[in-house]
Design brief:
This protein has 195 residues and is α+β, with helices and mostly antiparallel strands. The chain has a domain of 132 residues: 4'-phosphopantetheinyl transferase domain (Ribosomal Protein L22, Chain A). The chain contains 6 helices and 8 strands, in the order αβββββαααβαββα. The longest helix is centred in the middle third of the chain and has 22 residues. The chain is elongated, with a radius of gyration of 17 Å. The protein starts with a helix and ends with a helix.
């Protein structure tokens, strides 16, 4: 429905195709890129023209088994760095890196499960909530570790990572190629109000 509204066409006319790693894209000629994430009853969507985009949203769950998640998210060195952080900061650092890594991987269009440990980001991410530039060198190293196909290597440019901390119940992130217009956070009812 949102894609139909943005493109000014009936939603029934929208067709999807999938990249070599399964990332969906529009099946007709358009510069519009999109990505979706959901956690429990909440969803996050991002739309960008001429810029690949990836998003992730994770609910803040107090019963989260932090060490189990960290063992899936971090390689051995990163896990050791994370476990040495003060206990009071581990949850926030873990959630911010979780959503950041998934947003980056989704923006590139690679599989998440096999790539989370391969993508290395600073621990903790600098200034939670700010824009983090994934410079060419960092991204090239990540590309090598993730093992992108030759046809995907043109994605290795300057990327931006934005952590979204305004949601009191969740941590979220969006990763995009530059430039990207200012994002807007809105609730479903604000987008689709019954008439």
């Amino acid at each position: 429905m949102l894609l139909g509204e943005i493109l000014a066409i009936p939603p029934s006319e929208i067709a999807f195709r999938y990249g070599v790693r399964g990332k969906p894209y529009l099946g007709f000629d358009t510069e519009l890129q999109f990505n979706v994430s959901h956690s429990q009853d909440w969803a996050m969507m991002a739309f960008a023209r001429g810029s690949s985009v990836g998003v992730d949203l994770e609910m803040i769950d107090r019963s989260l088994n932090e060490e189990a998640i960290a063992s899936q998210l971090f390689n051995t060195g990163d896990f050791a760095t994370w476990i040495c952080l003060p206990e009071a900061h581990r949850r926030e650092v873990l959630l911010s890196l979780w959503v950041a890594k998934e947003a980056v991987l989704k923006s590139v269009g690679v599989g998440i499960a096999a790539s989370l440990k391969k993508l290395v980001l600073p621990i903790p991410l600098p200034n939670v909530g700010c824009l983090v530039t994934l410079d060419r060198l960092m991204f090239d190293v990540a590309v090598e570790r993730i093992g992108l196909y030759e046809s995907e290597r043109n994605l290795s440019k300057e990327w931006r990572l934005q952590l979204i901390t305004e949601l009191p119940f969740a941590m979220a992130a969006v990763c995009f190629e530059q430039p990207l217009e200012l994002r807007k956070i809105c609730y479903w009812d604000d987008v689709f109000v019954p008439k």
